Fold each of these.
Amino acid sequence: MRIGLFATCLGDTLFPEAVKSTAVLLARLGHDVVFPPEQTCCGQMHVNTGYQREPVPLVRNFAEQFGDPSIEAVVMPSGSCAGSVRHQHEIVAERYGDAGLRTGVAAVKAKTYELSEFLVDVLGVTDVGAYFPHRVTYHPTCHSLRMLRVGEKPLRLLRAVDGIRLVELPEAEACCGFGGTFAVKNAATSSAMLRDKMDHIAGTGAEVCTAGDSSCLMHIGGGLSRLRSGTRTLHLAQILNSTRTSPHVLAEAAR
Amino acid sequence: MSSPTGPPTSGTFLGMPAVPPRSPYGTGHLRGARRFPEAAHDELGNEQLRRNLGRATRSIRAKRLDATGELPDWEQLRDAGAAIKADTMNRLPELLEQLERKVAEHGGTVHWARDGVEANEIVARLVKDTGNDAVLKVKSMATQEIGLNEHLESEGITAYETDLAELIVQLAGDQPSHILVPAIHRNRDEIREIFLKEIPGIDPGLDTVPAHLAAAARAYLREKFMTTRVAVSGANFGIAETGTLSVVESEGNGRMCLTLPETLITVMGIEKVLPRFEDLEVFLQLLPRSSTGERMNPYTSMWTGVTPGDGPQDFHLVLLDNGRTAALADRIGRAALHCIRCSACLNVCPVYERTGGHAYGSVYPGPIGAVLTPQLAGMHGADHDPNSSLPYASSLCGACFDACPVKIDIPSLLVELRHQHTEESGTTAEGLAMKAAAAVMKRPKLFTAAQRTAGLGRVLAGRNGTFSRLPAPFNGWSDSRDTPAPPAQSFRSWLASAEGAAAMRAAAAEGTRHPDDDAPEGS
């Protein structure tokens, strides 16, 4: 399958390891991974903060970069960016775009997937040949859970990982408090939500907290680092791309 | 299709297109004194409040999941509720006139109030006409919204709240903090203190056993029920087809107020009308299961005008607009009018659970309050209008949408209201920053250059390659979170490098081997 990889602006700039793992994993599964070089950002931050005119060029660029019909699927290691492409791009195009943009957005939306749903729903795999001999807890991010409805898919992938010890996170479905600019505009409320999430993570005794969104992991990881909790965050793609021949070596957690 | 905020397209051009005048906004308790982040900051410091709320919302959440999960057709019920509400809003004027006609046919009198001020005046005049100076109150959001009790007091009329939680709030001189459980922010010890201080002749040995606290309130209220001749209620539903009004409740105190007095005055928001009596089949399942987690609420009262010799012989219905027509004019925002005040969204909201209801500054707190309040009362009534901060009081986690019995897509409404806010705000520092960010991101070359610059910022990072202090407006973030320094190499530069190309080639080589190639012989 010819897959267009969307790195996401955050992944490309701040968390390239998660994107590298996504690219290598998909290639390792036998697919042709292409990276449209002019891609930048889906515009989610703008829309969620109340700005819909400013991201019009970003939405247009996304549709153009991935509009190539030879690209059969657009895959990204982020539930919230996939949610933005699938739910918000048409709102922006409807309001401030032209007919061409509306058509382009609809075409790209139909083939856009977050990594775990692409693996399970489209490729039909749960065992990707991964090996990760560590104690792991999984935080389902809000947009993957309630916007994309990925449900158990990430957990099915994790359960098939060789050597993993998966521990359930209490009150897993509660938001970590990130919410993009919410964490800046309502920092105190966001911190209170983060504190409860970190308490639950600490209770699992996991070495690694994983999720499908680098943004939420940046938030949770930033808090865990401040507390020197001993638990580190790692994107789901990095666990799935860890193999016996090329295992992921855990970085020292802040203590 | 016309633009959502623009004027409707018309076949004939008649000069400058004009946006039709917006209906007036509502009055009353629909705007706080402070913006949400500041108010929330103080509430977050109240550990007692956090414990009370955490315990209460967790227990209601679990009950609601049991009560909704056991119904095989719960999702179809939600769809039916949403469809009936959409139909109602699409023909609200005709349904209200039908309701008026039916109520009048059955001996009731209907009054129309454009806003809270008018509704308050109507109710005070009706009470005075009876020659009484006290009224019983059935728990009602509409009368809280318009500040009826305060107005009656200014007219020399005493209002006695009869819902237990509402009574606690009234005796404490407090404000409700939850739609269904107005005293959710109080625990038993606090309630005991309030009763000891405010109920005349109470047993000074009162303890904190819930049954004893309820008995103390009961003794106090019974005397009011037997001696007060006028009652004021809200309404959960008003049936256009029959003119029937309905109140659902748990305690039976509402039933007392609706049956014992001589005069009953019901204040109903105009969005509470339902087309047909049979629509109650849907809503009497949706409401109790969503609000209290019960299969059925203990008391469902229904009355149609006046029944000679049975119940109040003088019945008045006050139909309250108070900003609802303004909300109805918003193609997207109007979905907030579908709300049946169950409060399920409050109980599942991680923001509400931590800040409580007072931080929202309105009688409607939580997720639904954050979309309903700005629509009823506007977001630009003052400089830095506190209401303009409400659409941002959410991480957009979506738990409210899943819990809503009539499927109001609250996260999408929040995003829509944020957009309306930025559109009306003119030039702001944030707006300029957003423009600048988009200007960089829409030019791939600039974006790549910005990534390189960001990568250079790593030299400024402290221990563990993180930033522990960031300047405003990010200082709130960095108070409790480290921020990773940008790595030396972005993904795209790695992919373009020899190392990246080699890694992708190696992965592709592995991918071209058929998985069965590795399978042992004969398996």
Amino acid sequence: MSRALLALIARDLALATRVGGSGALSLVFFLMIVALVPFALGPDLNLLSRIGPAILWLAAVLATLIGLDRLFQADDEDGSLDLMSAAPVPLELVVLAKVVAHWLTTGLPLALASPLFGLLVALDGTGMGATALTLLAGTPALTFIGAVGAALTASIRRGGLILAVLVLPLMVPTLIFGVSAAESASGGTVPFTTPLAILAGLSLIAAVVGTLAAAAALRWSE
Amino acid sequence: MTGPTRAGSPPKGCAGPSLAGAAHPSPARKDRPGGSAEPEPFRSGAQSGKEAGAAPGARGGGIRILRLSVEELACRRSGRRVFTGLSFALRPGEALAVTGRNGAGKSSLLAILAGRLRPDAGQIRVADVGEASLPECLHAVGHRDGLKAALTAGENLAFARALLGDARMEPRAALARLGLGHAHDLPVAYLSAGQRRRVALARLLVCHRPLWLLDEPTAALDVASQALLAELMAEHRAAGGLIVAATHQALGLEDAATLAIAAPEPGLDRPSPTPDRDADWRDADVEDWA
């Protein structure tokens, strides 16, 4: 069973890096948003470094939505999903493997690249580290919440907009705690670990609920 | 739900001849006690979390034994009755050619057998497969080939082999058998429609599955490949496998029983005013466009 899941993760990672894959897409989108903000706000370094974590988190939420609509739709269109439903593996684990692979190609690069992009919004060293850590803890929640919407819209052509409308409200708590954790690292009354623990908890809850809900949505659409 | 397989139950309504006990003595596996096994009720959930290996002689050995019995199956899509009262039974080594006009429900029947559609009425029973559910015992090759264009043919087959389990042939050997040895390292995007179909058919060879569901398997295939497919099907049946093929052409199943799906009685059901996307995508009409 684990061999099948590893094969599925390896396949999705390979697909993300091939031609037409969505590997670098969300990262480039992330960079575009973060790079445009200083141009819009002007060269006020104090203002930029104060709202920097919020900008990075906002960009991460929007970048997560890119490519999410193809998570199950691509496999639904070409019949791969039928192949997976014939595997001796529960659909929940198939969903889990696909979402993990998706996070490895979108969420993880975002978190790892965020210190670099923090330079664009004049973050100091502590802020960069804190933002990267909160993104590492929080982007799994974003991906798993998005997976539910992706499963619901898998059989809808041009379901990307519906997907965004469906899942963005559910991503709000993650965004709130992510930004508050990143900001509390560079001053404030709340200790850093409190919102970070809640953020990690949100990711764990989303991993369980999101996997079950996405699998149920895929079954229901059959 | 559970009951003995009623081999040879008379067809009702529009169903074609029942196949049970028809022409073929199965060449292999005659050692099994024929009617003694109690068939299991079909579990419609495609993903039961069990390992598929509990069947007698399951992994590593030959093709798993499977007997399939379908009774009074009815299908309704978007409120429109597609077919009713289909009954047939298949024993190891037997094949069924499903015929009927476009839109008669051939692909719907295969989708129900594959667990992708829920039947409106009727029962599907499988026997002698142990813990495995029916979707874990079958290969389905249809209009959507399940291949990723960005991956090579070999990678696609290696993935299917790891995912489906019950590995049999190496991807390279399976491709060579289908005359595509040179395509092992080519992305599927570079292959023609007929070559893609042959890669999808090679999936039949990389994993053991006792039941093959083939939806217009000869579509886009040249004459030589059609003969090759007929050869593969004959080998599969000789090893005790089952085949259900929706087809307009003979494709080497001349000796197999035929199930003709007729049109439902007119006037009973009005077509739904809003046909869903699912129906027009998956229904048999698609084969006209291909």
